[in-house]
UniProtKB/TrEMBL annotation, chain A:
Any single GO CC term annotated in Swiss-Prot or TrEMBL for this entry: plasma membrane
Region (Disordered) residue spans: 406-433
Signal peptide: none
Protein name: Amino acid/amide ABC transporter membrane protein 2, HAAT family
InterPro entries linked: ABC_transp_permease, ABC_transptr_urea_perm_UrtC, LivM-like
Membrane in keyword set: yes
Entries under NCBIfam families matching the protein: urea_trans_UrtC (TIGR03408)
Provenance organism: Methylophilus rhizosphaerae
Protein topology in the membrane: Multi-pass membrane protein
Automatic annotation (TrEMBL), chain B:
Protein name (database record): Urea transport system ATP-binding protein
ATP-binding as UniProt keyword: yes
MF terms (GO), sorted A to Z: ATP binding; ATP hydrolysis activity
Protein's organism: Methylophilus rhizosphaerae
Gene3D superfamilies (UniProt xref): P-loop containing nucleotide triphosphate hydrolases
Taxonomic placement: Bacteria, Pseudomonadati, Pseudomonadota, Betaproteobacteria, Nitrosomonadales
GO cellular component: plasma membrane
Top-level taxon: Bacteria
UniProtKB/TrEMBL annotation, chain C:
Compartment(s) of residence: Cell membrane
Primary site of residence: membrane
Transmembrane segments: 20-39, 51-69, 75-94, 153-175, 209-230, 242-263, 270-293
Protein's membrane topology: Multi-pass membrane protein
Keyword Membrane: yes
GO terms of molecular function: transmembrane transporter activity
Family as reported in the entry's similarity comment: Belongs to the binding-protein-dependent transport system permease family. LivHM subfamily.
Keywords assigned by UniProt, alphabetized: Amino-acid transport, Cell membrane, Membrane, Transmembrane, Transmembrane helix, Transport
Name of the featured protein: Amino acid/amide ABC transporter membrane protein 1, HAAT family
A GO cellular-component term linked to this record: plasma membrane
Pfam families cross-referenced by the UniProt entry: BPD_transp_2
Organism, as annotated: Methylophilus rhizosphaerae
Length: 433, 247, 305
């Protein structure tokens, strides 16, 4: 088997379409954009791509699991702040802070009459610890929230509201505790990482590529999970949680796991944000950024990992363009986007792409194997139904050698009487269009 | 409570909702390989009894022993893992998965988070799915998305999902609701087949159907047992006749 | 404790308690509207704060008009009525074009109404400017009682409290004693059956939603007596109001009152002893912790499932 055939046959990648989808995205991120735009714009795109980590996590959590967290900014922020603490300490060596009344501590601490480094800042002098903290602290925090709520079977809108409240609490706390956090301005003036100046163009290029690779890592990991039995169970839980529970599964553990994983991905995004942008502030933690990240995911197509990346890029590009030229229009647009995506395009860009890809027969696979089951969109509202890179492919891989990446999108089940929205007639081929 | 030879021993089981006793000091024993049918008017507490056994509702008092293991203190998934399967009143299947996947998800391996991440579709799983699909007469629909099945087929599929787990005790809440006469006959055969090596509790209103399957019948009324025994005996019981016909 | 004498603390608690009462009334009015929409219909209305802002701007505008004609002392009653009617009308319209299509998708409703709130905020900003504006308060509402020399009780606070009490009573009568309330509750409990016995469930939904929005409009009118209004005024209250509703147990009026009272008082009193942000953080933290342990809220009744 050639490499191409192997890739096509890989259930994780999602067959021919999945491979093409990933390849196109990789080409855009790693070739087209770096060659096509200057470093200032590329750095901006790198910033957008850090939000894509959050969006990818939300695809699993919300798109597949039906769990809408309005607090992903918490984890993005925790990751970003952990990295910022390390960089800030490095930028605050006694020599460069000698004009302060207490040299050797971050400037904002000095302004707030702190005379010594707080204890919880100490470990962030070490880069390995910082990386460890980025990966574990947000996940641990998510574990505590998830354990408390999912074990008590809090779900649906209650989960959303409570995560939103936690995001609010954290952002108020960060703003309020200036001496420890830099307050509303955040941690600014970050310069070097282990002596390497992150503000230079070459560093920005390198960080952009590292960020891209990490993002692909997150996408591959998510694809693997979605194609496993775990992914199938996630869909099953969204549909009939009781049935899953009475089939012998501890539903809460699955939810906790996926919540922690999404948190961890968001935190990596946050850390990369700090590195590329050179600061971190509470405006990336609170209610507004958290819910905006949901809309990035929804615009791309809440069930599509690659769609989430495009959605993030597109919305942020729009935001940048509009807030530069017509700032007052931006809120209208953003608000309109929320409303129209939910009401008219619940499967987002992926759904629209798919409709046309199917209509014009692009990427038709020759071997047309097993009928794909469909996956209804979210929270028990099975009106719009689309297909996904379901685990079937993984599992079928054992028996059918050539796999199998045809997803047919069908009408919702006949008994569903809810008038289906525009996307009803969409055909979705290969979830990750 | 002492240990018994029964598969299921329910003793003095009571549950009250804000003072209303939906099940009131119920005592009931189920033998190995027995097919028991629970009948009774609406609100008699039939479904609540199943809810209590499978842990969906927590009891106020009393004990439920399954192979001499106390179930009242276990959580739902632990009860299932100990060998109790439960079918709900309305067919509860994963409409967005294929019939094959519905059965596969119910296969009792890879039940933990990490187990499910590394779960592989082995020959064993494949064979088991095909065997069960044959039992529930859905072999030719394996690749179909389950939302497209008829109501009766969905009922069978849910029974099949339970069979995948090879439970020792199978509880079915109105398994023939919404089925055609032919499907009812097929279901009766199915039930008679599957109770060969397990105990089954069925809730059913259709007396013709009950006659075809029941080894013993328990009549519930207002949370209490009104009568228990073979179908003929129960049908002749005056109290039962009064409850069913008296008002 | 914190260097205050017991008598000081007593006075502080009374005065902060009273300033907490103003916040309590605004929160209560916001939460009553939300409790109807969320508790009865299960709809999360993230734009609820903006309906309050509608009421607030309406009151401010009417006060300006009244001031220019010298009616300042009497306008407030009309302002309340018009704030209610306007918010009601907008709510009615929004239900018709948006909410009714999303009843089966609660999480999507949440996102769509968030979008709505952004649009409404921008409309406010474009129409009234980004600067905060205040209503011309009637003279009788200014000033305060002094029951003891150390205690100051502002009259506007007393006024909004009476208003809140009346509205609460009205909502209670409407939901539990009127024919219409019966229809609402019937629709909530069994939509199909309610439809079958001849209740126009679509209309019930629309009016219920609009009513919740209308009450938010009254909250806005009350709000103008204690603070000035800006385009983003509503967003400051939305999370708190949701916390009140969830904490009080979504469908219970008594719970809503009690939790609005508790949350407003806790914030107000804590804010005196800590910084304002820490007061808010500690209050929210306590609520979230309690909700994690008792997710059904404090006043939810046990039901047979």
């Amino acid at each position: 088997m050639t490499l191409w055939e192997k890739m096509k046959a890989s259930p994780v990648l999602g067959g021919k379409e999945g491979v093409i989808g990933l390849a196109v995205l990789a080409a855009i991120i790693f070739v087209v954009l770096p060659l096509g735009v200057d470093i200032f714009r590329l750095n901006l795109i790198g910033k957008y791509l850090t939000y894509a980590f959050v969006a990818v996590g939300l695809v699993m959590l919300w798109g597949h699991g039906g769990i809408l967290s309005l607090g992903q900014g918490i984890f993005f922020g925790l990751g970003g702040y952990a990295m910022a603490m390390f960089l800030k300490l490095e930028a605050s060596d006694p020599l460069s802070t000698k004009i302060q009344s207490t040299p050797g501590i971050p400037d904002f601490m000095d302004w707030n009459q702190l005379t010594a480094l707080p204890w919880f800042w100490e470990p962030f002098k070490s880069l390995p610890f910082t990386i460890f903290a980025v990966l574990t602290i947000p996940a641990l925090f998510a574990y505590i929230i998830g354990y408390a709520m999912f074990k008590r079977r809090v779900g649906g809108v209650y989960f959303s509201i409570i995560t939103q409240a936690i995001a609010l609490i954290l952002s108020i706390l960060i703003v309020g505790q200036q001496g420890y956090t830099g307050g509303v301005n955040g941690m600014t003036d970050l310069r070097t990482m282990l002596g390497w100046d992150i503000r230079t163009d070459s560093a920005k290029y390198i960080l952009y590529f590292v960020n891209g690779l990490l993002l692909f890592g997150a996408i591959f990991l998510s694809k693997y999970i979605m194609s496993s039995k775990f992914g199938m169970l996630l869909l099953a839980m969204r549909d009939k949680e009781e049935r899953v529970r009475f089939s012998g599964y501890d539903v809460s553990n699955f939810k906790i796991f996926i919540f922690c994983l999404a948190a961890m991905m968001s935190a990596v995004g946050g850390a990369m944000f700090t590195l590329q942008v050179g600061f971190m502030s509470p405006s990336f933690v609170g209610i507004v950024p958290s819910i905006e990240m949901v809309i990035f995911c929804a615009v791309g197509g809440r069930a599509s990992l690659i769609g989430a990346v495009y959605g993030t890029l597109l919305v942020n590009y729009g935001k940048t363009v509009f807030s530069e030229t017509y700032p007052e229009m931006w809120l209208f647009l953003m608000g309109g986007l929320f409303i129209s995506v939910v009401m008219f395009f619940p499967s987002g860009l992926a759904g629209i792409w798919d409709k046309y890809a199917t209509k014009y027969g692009w990427f038709k696979d020759k071997a047309e194997p097993v009928k794909k089951p469909e996956v209804s969109i979210a929270e028990g509202e099975a009106q719009a139904v689309l297909t996904e890179t379901t685990p079937e492919t993984t599992l079928a891989a054992k028996t059918n050698d050539a796999v199998i990446k045809k997803a047919t999108r069908k009408k919702a089940a006949p008994k569903q009487t809810e008038p289906a929205p525009a996307i009803d007639s969409n055909k979705m081929r290969g979830a990750e269009a | 409570m002492s240990n018994t030879d029964f598969v299921l021993a329910v003793e003095d089981l009571t549950v009250s909702f804000d003072g209303f006793k939906a099940v009131d000091s119920l005592t009931m024993y189920i033998d190995k390989n027995e097919l028991r049918v629970l009948v009774g008017p609406n609100g008699a507490g039939k479904t609540t009894v199943l809810d209590l056994i499978c842990g969906k509702t927590k009891s106020t008092a009393g004990s439920i022993k399954f192979n001499n293991t106390e179930l009242t203190k276990l959580s739902e998934h632990e009860i299932v893992r100990s060998g109790v399967g439960r079918k709900f009143q309305n067919p509860s299947i994963y409409e967005n998965l294929s019939v094959y996947q519905n059965l596969e998800v119910s296969y009792p391996k890879g039940r933990g988070v990490f187990g499910s991440l590394t779960f592989k579709r082995t020959k064993e799983v494949e064979d088991r799915v095909r065997k069960v699909a044959e039992d529930i007469m859905l072999t030719e629909f394996l690749d179909m998305e389950s939302a497209l099945l008829s109501h009766g087929q969905k009922q069978w599929l849910e029974i099949g999902m339970l069979l995948m787990q090879e439970p020792e005790l199978l509880m079915l809440d109105e398994p023939v609701a919404g089925m055609s006469a032919k499907e009812r006959d097929q279901t009766a055969e199915l039930l008679n087949r599957i109770c060969q090596n397990r105990s089954v509790i069925v809730i059913e209103h259709d007396m013709e159907f009950v006659k075809k399957i029941a080894h013993k019948v328990t009549v519930l009324h207002q949370g209490k047992i009104l009568a228990e025994g073979p179908m003929e005996k129960v049908q002749a019981d005056e109290k039962v006749i009064e409850v069913y016909l008296g008002h | 404790m914190f260097g205050y004498s017991m008598a000081d603390i007593g006075n502080i608690v009374v005065m902060q308690g009273f300033s907490g009462l103003s916040m309590f009334t605004v929160l209560l009015l916001m939460a009553l509207g939300l409790a109807i929409i969320f508790g009865q219909m299960g709809v999360i209305n993230m734009a609820h704060g903006e309906f309050m802002t509608i009421g607030a701007y309406t009151t401010v505008l009417i006060s300006k008009v009244a001031a220019s004609y010298g009616f300042t002392n009497y306008y407030f009653v009309f302002a309340i009525a018009i704030a209610f009617l306007l918010a009601f009308a907008v709510g009615y319209f929004i239900e018709f074009i948006m909410i009714r299509h999303l009843y089966k998708r609660p999480l999507d409703t949440l996102l769509a109404t968030w979008g709505l709130s952004l649009v409404m905020q921008q409309i406010f900003r474009s129409s009234f400017g980004a600067k905060e504006v205040s209503a011309e308060l009637p003279e009788w509402m200014l000033g305060s009682f002094k029951p003891t020399p150390d205690i100051d009780i502002p009259i506007n606070g007393v006024f909004v409290m009476v208003l809140a009490a009346l509205v609460t009573f009205g909502v209670y009568m409407f939901m539990y004693k009127s024919r219409w309330g019966l229809r609402v509750r019937a629709t909530v409990q069994n939509r199909t059956m309610a439809g079958a016995v001849g209740i126009n469930t679509a209309k019930v939904d629309r009016v219920t939603f609009a009513l919740g929005c209308g009450i938010a409009g009254i909250a806005g009118a009350a709000f103008t007596t204690i603070a000035s209004t800006g385009p983003t005024t509503g967003t400051l209250y939305i999370v708190d109001s949701f916390m009140v509703v969830v904490f009080g147990g979504a469908a219970s009026i008594v719970g809503t009152i009690a939790s609005a009272f508790g949350i407003a008082q806790a914030q107000s009193i804590l804010q005196f002893f800590m910084t304002s942000s820490m007061g808010k953080v500690s209050t929210l933290l306590v609520i979230v912790t309690i909700l994690m342990m008792k997710p059904e809220g404090l006043f939810a009744s046990k039901l047979r499932k």
